[in-house]
Every structure is written in structure tokens, then in C-alpha cells.
Specification:
Helices cover 37% and strands 18% of the residues. By secondary structure, the protein is of the alpha+beta class. The structure holds 3,4-dihydroxyphenylalanine.
Amino acid sequence: MYTVPKLKSYTATALDKASDSLLAALEKESSAVRNEEDWKAFRDRWMARKNGVLTQINDLWLKQAPKDAKRDVGQRVNQLKATVTATVEKPRSGAVATAKRAGDSVTARASVAAPSLDSLDITLPGIRRPLGAEHPVIKTAHEIVSVFRNLGYSVQEGPVIETDYYNFEALNFPPNHPARDTQDTLFIARQESKPQRERLLLRTHTSPVQIRTMEKMKPPIRIVIPGKVHRNDPPDASHSPMFHQIEGLAVDTNITFCDLKGTLDHAMKELFGSSVKTSFRPSFFPFTEPSAEMLVSCFICGGSGKRGSEPCRPCKQTGWIEILGCGMVDPNVYGFVGYDPKKVSGFAFGMGADRIAILKYGVDDIQLFFNGDVRFLEQFG
Ligand code: DAH
């Protein structure tokens, strides 16, 4: 059986010789194909990405070629690729063709891909590629980000694989603090030999980017941070182990809770319409003090809790929807980034982009966002 040789010389004659013996082997093996099974083995031997003959000539001939021979070798390798592809995909007669026509789409494509020239009707219209659409979660995230950009915020991003230090410690979750339990963290395996703060995990929120940004920038800071986060939540209609958050942070002199309320109230009106109201109730996050949850009046039932005579489901008949967590940055956090808590103050907030997309578009299952069914995604085009 033919094996791809290493080339000792890259002269035209040497290349001719190597190509000829490759093509002879191709012809011989092609004519020995009798049935579907033979054909698949033949195809894989020549075209498999991993170690097929084409891959090998790429690796052994083209990549090893000296600089001045690269162009010539490249052209020959391309020609060989075209010939091999056409030979493998050419329509075959008898058993192979019948077996393949019975439903092998690879073959169906092959006969289109390699038409003989006299049957090519160049007056046929081309094939229009369907236009893509922005994914609904990304679209929602962009909308949220642009509301804050219009207020003068800039965008920061950070790594999805984080250290314990940024995800927890510097956000005022000390080691073993029970607030860590609320985060259902997915830890990267085999980190035990490192000091705890260096151990890697999948970030459970976008808040670590607050720290990363404050480490490199001095106040005044106004940023939004969109990104992917992970938690150990089994997937169901309202949970996904991967989801998206948008975080915000404003630090300056004399920033108060009034600024937080005014900013977020404005943002919600931009996002959900000028008639929504906001409401704050006390909460706890280790990195903010005081902390709050913000609710918006239900923009589906207008706050009544009812849709006609039916109960309103998105707000569970309360007329309010919990939309984000927020608070004034805890002075301890400033200690981790070298800011003086006596001189600066600020607020932070974090919200789930997927959840907001669900509410905005009336989607009843978060999994629809992630299982890649075009029939679902097309509706957002
Ligand atoms: N990081 C929090 C979470 O995912 C959400 C959050 C709450 C972010 C309050 C904030 C904040 O910036 O101030 O559970």
C-alpha cells in the first residue's frame, strides 16, 4: 500500500516523481472500490483530517519545504488536493452509486461538487446563503450595554477561568465564608497543590472584573462588564450551567445610593419602556454594603398581576419582577485594590442577560437559547 514519502529533494523533477507515484496509487485504489464500505475506507484513507494522505502531504511535503520551494510545492499540493477530492467524490456506478443514492448526503453533494463541464448550466441562479441573525441573548446584552454606554460607561471584559482570589477573596468572600455556598462553583480539578487564592475555577459571576479593572485604573470609574459565567446548576427550563451576566461599577468621589437608584431607574425605563417603576428591597452581597435587590414593575401585565382574567406568570401575580442585585461598594473591597475608602465611594450592580432576554421575548425555556436549533434562532432575525 502507498505511503507518503518524505522528500529529500524539492527540485521540479523530484516533485514530478513524487506526484506521479501518488496519483498512480490514487488511480489504483480508486478502481479497486467495489461497494459503499470500500468507498468509505478509500475516502478516509485519502481525505481524513487526521492522517489522511492529503494531510500527510501537507505535513511532510509543504510544511517541510525550504522557503524558496514553498510556492511551487504549495501549488502542486493544491493540485493534488483537487485531484484527490474529485476522484474520491466522483459519481460511481453500480453497487456504490445505488448504495449511496439511498440516502448518503455526502454523495449527493459530491455529484454536485464535481459536475462535468458540458453539463454545467452557468445561467442557473446562484445559491443564496441565508443571512445570520444576532443571538437573542447577545442582542439583549448589547442593548443593555448600549444604555450604559450612553451614560458614559465603557466596557470591560475579563477571563471566564478565574482564580479563587478574584472570584471570591477580593470581593470580600473570605475563605470558608458561607456566602461562597450561594455560588454553586465549578472548580477546575487538581488545583490542591496551589495556595487557595491561586486555584482556578469557572467564574460564577462577572464581579471579578470589578477588581481587575480597579487594580489597573484609578477613579473615576464607570464600566459595564458583559460576559459568560458558570454555575453547578443542572439544566432545566429556567437554569443553565452557563449563562450571561452584565455587571456595572461606578466609583468616584461622593457617589451615593441616590446615584445608584437614579441610574438604574433610568436604565430600566430605557430597556423596558418609560412607564416601568422600580423598587428596592434589602439583600446581602459580601462586596456591597448596603445591598439591595431591584425589582421592576411587571411590563407584561403593567403591574396588575393579571392578564385579563388569567394570572400573570412572569411576575407570579405580584406585579413585580426581580431583575438585579446591587449595592454600594463595600469599603473592604477598596482595601484589596489600593483605593482609599475615605476618599471614594461607588455602586455596583449585576444582572442576568439570559433572564432578561427570556422576559423580553416571552421565551419559556432557557435551553432554547443554547441548543442551536435554527428554527428558534431564525425568529430573532
Ligand atoms: N455577582 C452577583 C451574583 O452573581 C450579582 C451582583 C449583586 C453583582 C450585587 C453586583 C452587585 O455588582 O452589586 O450573584
